[in-house]
Amino acid sequence: MQTLRTILIALVTSVGVLSFFSDNLVRNTETINQEMSDSDEKINVESLNNYGLREFQKEIVDTVEAVKESVVSIIITKDFILYEQGRASELIKQQVGWGSWILIDEQWYILTNKHVLGDDDSEYIVVYSDGSTSEVKDIWRDDTLDIAIIKVDESEVAWKEPARILDFKESITVGQFALAIGNALAEFQNSVTFWVVSWNNRRLTLENENLYAWLIQTDTSISEGNSWGPLFNIDGKVIGINTAVSAFWENIWFAIPLSQQFVDASIQSVKNYDAIVRPFVWVRYLDLQAPNNNGVEILEVVPWSPAEGVWIQEWDLITHINDTLINTERSFMYHLHTFLPGDTINISLQRDGNKQERSLVLWN
Prior knowledge:
CATH superfamily of the largest domain: Trypsin-like serine proteases
Shape: globular
Number of strands: 19
């Protein structure tokens, strides 16, 4: 009996204590919630100013406004024969594709991916941000990269501001902001998506003739329709052209990096050769991508090539072209693509621990 009485007293006491703490907990929780609510309201009102978000938002808005004229949409159409009762009755034109391209020059040169221009029987219509249109006049395709340049008749439309493009020596940094603008799903023209550069100098292996190297990886949302279009930095400069997507994961996109020198060389090649022609030094090499080991190691030199002509040898380490370091941001091959056949470049190399200089003329 004494034991039962002790248990009952303990239970009553416990219930009282729990009730006390429960009441205080409810009151404290209500107080905390109210304080948090007041705090949230204060933050919601003031955060844009307090944390610089309003200025950041304005930067994005200003960037989009500044570049939108240079982003164009593309509509791809093709003629099909309509059959009735087994006989051709009429020829109809149907839309078979769409995308986004970028105006890169005041003379109406426009840049896109080569893989979207593979059908010579299709027609390509450029749609500008103001709704005006023009037909594609000429197409030039790169033999090695997934790059193509088109030209339209400038007399057909009012003048548009071409894109500003990153200088070759400017950096593309992992974590920097990136914006894509384009004709999302072929329906929502000038759609803007935004996030960051995820990595640099990625390589892809695809079953076609294109070289997919030095790629920018981004998680900026890019859908069918605003692919093939430009990737901008926060300053409104084009840093790449969207070209491929991971087949297995969402928000893993890849862009071919662009620089003003690369674009200028591409346009000048079209003017000089009526084709996109890339120069080479005719060596086989190994990229050295360790953080403190930049450059390329020469594995083989093609006989009678420009490299052999200036005594570049196997196991030489080429570190610079025209005083610019070869590294993960500025790869050897991409650097060469900023020049034309016939250009002379200066090469710095290491041989047996000694620095040497070479000057050679590029071939195609």
